[in-house]
Each structure stands twice: as structure tokens, then as C-alpha cells.
Design goal:
Layout: H1 6-16, E1 20-24, H2 31-41, E2 45-50, H3 59-72, E3 77-84, H4 87-95, E4 100-103, H5 110-124, E5 130-133, H6 143-153, E6 157-160, H7 165-169, E7 176-180, H8 186-194, H9 207-216, E8 220-223, H10 225-241, H11 248-270
Parallel strand pairs: 1-2, 1-8, 2-3, 3-4, 4-5, 5-6, 6-7, 7-8
Helix pairs in contact: 2-11, 5-6, 8-10, 10-11
């Protein structure tokens, strides 16, 4: 299926009141269990590659592998470059077939954010590439600032913190994307710790809390930290409990199964099961 612009996915999600799950990956091996589960659940999806990953020597291999797999799949999906801070990263996205990108304006004030976002949109619009962005400035800035940012830039989707959704959605009918919303599933944390890992303990969101964010108007939920936790728990378990296994594919199998389980869980929370039929 041809890759879709991120704005198409988000506009449909906004109309039908669900969230499109977004899964960040940094190795091609993660893509197969994600796509298989997304297809089984009949869900649309974003596949994210973080902009910082572009500085690695195998970046083009990763992007080519992901894009070709998405194009061969039947999943309504967008290939998304996450956390763009520089124009050179925008140029890379346009050159290598991304259909969506998000800007990280966290170190810019409002005026700088408006200027950078407008420039990126002018570059991306001819190719149909959608742009998400935050308004920049200090955390906790007023909803009116977000409204002004959207009005002045025409950005396709607004990136918000969880506690900003309700006040902003009361003023704007625009798709809203959440940054990485870690659930911090503690079964993965405990298993990793038991097998010698030392994952940093952070406060996370329960499935019910994420579900309420979707009901409040979130149209995209990004998952990265929990993918890392699930993969690491499965890999450590494999290395500890299957010590006779030497083949890399078999060693990775339990780790990828944990990722598959996580993807299924996230799709349910987002309410996106069966929504692929809308595209």
C-alpha cells in the first residue's frame, strides 16, 4: 500500500475520535512484529525514526528497509521523521521518502518556532509531507499561545503535553499528537532487573490514563521507551533461559514477541483496532 501523508491519518483519527499508534524503531528487526500485529488488528500506524538516528552510518539502510517494507504491506501507514531540529534533516526526509515529520521546537521561543515551522512547511508542502510541531517556549505556556502558533504557521498537527490537551482542544479543532507517553509496564522493568539490567525507574501512564487522553482528544500516541523495555526484557530472558541457542534469529525471537504483545496492547488503548478500513 502506498505510504500516506501523516495529515491524512490524523484527520481521520480526529474525525472518528481515536488515536493512531506511532511506534519508534532504531533497527529493522523491530518492524516485522510491529507491522504483523498492526495488520492483524486492522489498525493504521505511524512508524517513527528519530532524527538523531540519521547521524549513524547505517541510517540510509534503515530508512530504505523500513520504507520498502511499509510499501509492500497492506497497513495504512506513514513513515515519520521524529524530532527534527535542522533544515538538513528536513532535506533528508524529503529525499528518502518520509511522508510526515515532527519538529522539536523546545529550545526555540515562539517567534523562532513560528519562523522555523513556516520554513519547513514551505519545503514540505509541494511533496505532500505533513508537519507536526510544538509551539516552543517554556512548558506550561497558555493555550492562547498554542492557538496563535497554529494560526500563524498552518501546521498540520500540534504536539502537546498530556495536561495541555483539554484546554487546547476546547479552542482548536486540529489533530493533536502526544510526545512519547511511556506506560512503564513494570513487568518488563522487574524482569529486566531480575536478569541483571538496571532500567531507570520513571513514573509512567497506566493504560486507563492513556485511554482517557485519547478520549480527551489525542489523535496520536508515540511509543518508544516501552518498546525498549519490552525488547530488553525478552532478550535478557532469552540469553538467560535459552543458553544453548546460538543463532541470532532464534535469540531475538522472545524479544520480538514481547514487542508484538506491547504493540497489541497499545493499539487497544488507542482505540484504533479495525480503523484501517477507513482509509
Amino acid at each position: 500500500m502506498p505510504l500516506l501523508s501523516g495529515s491524512i491519518l490524523l484527520e481521520v483519527a480526529n474525525t472518528y475520535c481515536f488515536a493512531v499508534p506511532a511506534f519508534s524503531i532504531d533497527i529493522p528487526d523491530l518492524l516485522s512484529p510491529i507491522l504483523e500485529e498492526v495488520h492483524l488488528e486492522g489498525s493504521p500506524a505511524f512508524i517513527h525514526i528519530r532524527a538523531e538516528r540519521l547521524h549513524d552510518r547505517d541510517a540510509t539502510y534503515l530508512v530504505d528497509a523500513v520504507r520498502s517494507s511499509l510499501e509492500r504491506s497492506e497497513v495504512p501507514a506513514s513513515l515519520h521523521l521524529e524530532g527534527v531540529r535542522e533544515i538538513t534533516e528536513v532535506v533528508f526526509a524529503l529525499r528518502f521518502g518520509f511522508t510526515s515529520l515532527s519538529l522539536d521546537n523546545s529550545e526555540r521561543n515562539l517567534e523562532e518556532s513560528v519562523e522555523f515551522t513556516r520554513k519547513v512547511i514551505s519545503l514540505c508542502t509541494p511533496s505532500g509531507v505533513s508537519v507536526e510541531a510544538d509551539a516552543g517556549g517554556p512548558k506550561g505556556s497558555s493555550p492562547d499561545i498554542k492557538v496563535e502558533f497554529v494560526r500563524r504557521t498552518g501546521v498540520h498537527s500540534l504536539i502537546l503535553e498530556p495536561d495541555e490537551i483539554t484546554p487546547v482542544k476546547g479552542l482548536l479543532d486540529i489533530p493533536v499528537s502526544l510526545k512519547d507517553v511511556p506506560a512503564r509496564y513494570y513487568e518488563y522493568v522487574l524482569e529486566t532487573s531480575r536478569l541483571g539490567g538496571r532500567p531507570e525507574l520513571k513514573e509512567g501512564f497506566t493504560d486507563e490514563e492513556v485511554r482517557r487522553l485519547v478520549e480527551a482528544g489525542a489523535n496520536k500516541v508515540v511509543t518508544w521507551e516501552d518498546i525498549c523495555l519490552a525488547f530488553n526484557a525478552g532478550l535478557r530472558s532469552s540469553l538467560y533461559n535459552r543458553r544453548e541457542i546460538l543463532e541470532p534469529k532464534e535469540t531475538l525471537r522472545p524479544a520480538l514477541e514481547r514487542v508484538r504483545d506491547l504493540v497489541r496492547r497499545r493499539i487497544k488503548v488507542c482505540g484504533s483496532s479495525g480503523r484501517a478500513s477507513l482509509f
